[in-house]
Design brief:
The chain has helices spanning 96-118, 148-165, 176-180, 183-188, and strands spanning 5-6, 16-27, 30-35, 37-38, 52-55, 60-69, 72-79, 89-94, 124-129, 136-140, 169-174, 201-206, 210-213, 228-236, 239-246. By secondary structure, the protein is α+β, with helices and mostly antiparallel strands. It folds into two domains: 5-94, Elongation Factor Tu (Ef-tu), domain 3 (Beta Barrel), CATH 2.40.30.130; 99-246, Threonyl-tRNA Synthetase, Chain A, domain 2, CATH 3.30.980. Strand 9 (124-129) and strand 10 form a beta hairpin. The longest helix is centred in the middle third of the chain and has 23 residues, at 96-118.
Length: 253
């Protein structure tokens, strides 16, 4: 089976698309739909999946979960009536509010990375969790001789200076050779050995000079995130966890 074309990597602002059904079947008591291309982001990298609908004139498929398995994006959910047939054209529509919230939370984690870098902390990012219920980013490092209260204030203040004034977020596709030739990209990628040798790598740049390999979804400008709050900074066995949250934007998004 051909791999799914992942439209969510090409345009973070797009919420609808046309696609064709490659397969529709049952798997472990759940309905599954596989398309030739999709905007639905599959859960991964600490970011929740997209939800929404896939439909044609005959039926609606409510997408409840999305997973990426061996290059194939599987949409799990429920049909309102007769399942799709192979080859049918369908219309995909994301829950745009859910996507925006998750993109803001995810992007806030990248802004946190950039802020620490600008403050002179060369901690290596590791595990991250960008779900609404308690997002955080973990780093390899230590808090020896660090004033934690001051650090919390410094991080929050600098994050929100960028949020107030705005900072563009852009993406491009490179290969592993390009990543290995860039010292900054090497430093930002905690799992360098896991980067594919013969596949494109998506690199996200915040501002003019802070880039990270990433295949999640992002906002297009840091001003869209809202106010970033640092909840807690703690260290355990050489791992620093910085917990954060975001306040709603003025328009209530």
């Amino acid at each position: 089976m051909n791999q799914t074309k992942k439209l969510y990597l090409d345009d973070f602002t797009k919420n609808t698309c046309q696609a064709h059904v490659m397969h529709a079947f049952r798997e472990k008591d759940r309905d599954v739909v596989i398309l030739d291309q999709t905007l639905f982001y599959p859960q991964g990298g600490g970011q929740p999946c997209d939800q929404g609908t896939i439909q044609n004139d005959q039926t609606i498929f409510n997408v409840q979960d999305v997973r990426l398995i061996d290059g194939i994006v599987k949409h799990f959910g429920v049909f309102t009536s007769t399942p799709f047939e192979i080859g049918q054209e369908v219309y995909c529509k994301l829950d745009s509010e859910r996507r925006m919230l998750h993109s803001r939370l995810h992007s806030a984690g990248h802004v946190l990375d950039k802020t620490l870098y600008e403050l002179g902390f060369n901690w290596i990012p590791g595990k991250s969790y960008h779900f609404p219920n308690g997002p955080y980013v973990e780093y390899s490092g230590n808090l020896h001789n660090v004033d934690i209260d001051k650090l919390k204030n410094d991080i929050e203040n600098l994050c929100n200076v960028w949020g107030t004034h705005g900072m563009p977020v852009t993406s491009k596709v490179v290969d592993k050779k390009t990543v290995l030739a860039n010292e900054q990209l090497i430093r930002r990628c905690a799992f360098l050995a896991n980067l594919p040798d013969n596949k494109p790598i998506y690199v996200i740049t915040y501002g003019d000079d802070f880039a990270s390999p990433c295949s999640g979804t992002h906002i297009t400008n840091v001003s869209e995130i809202g106010h970033i709050m640092i909840r807690k900074i703690k260290e355990s066995d050489g791992t620093i966890r910085i917990s954060y949250d975001i306040r709603s934007l003025p328009n209530g998004e």
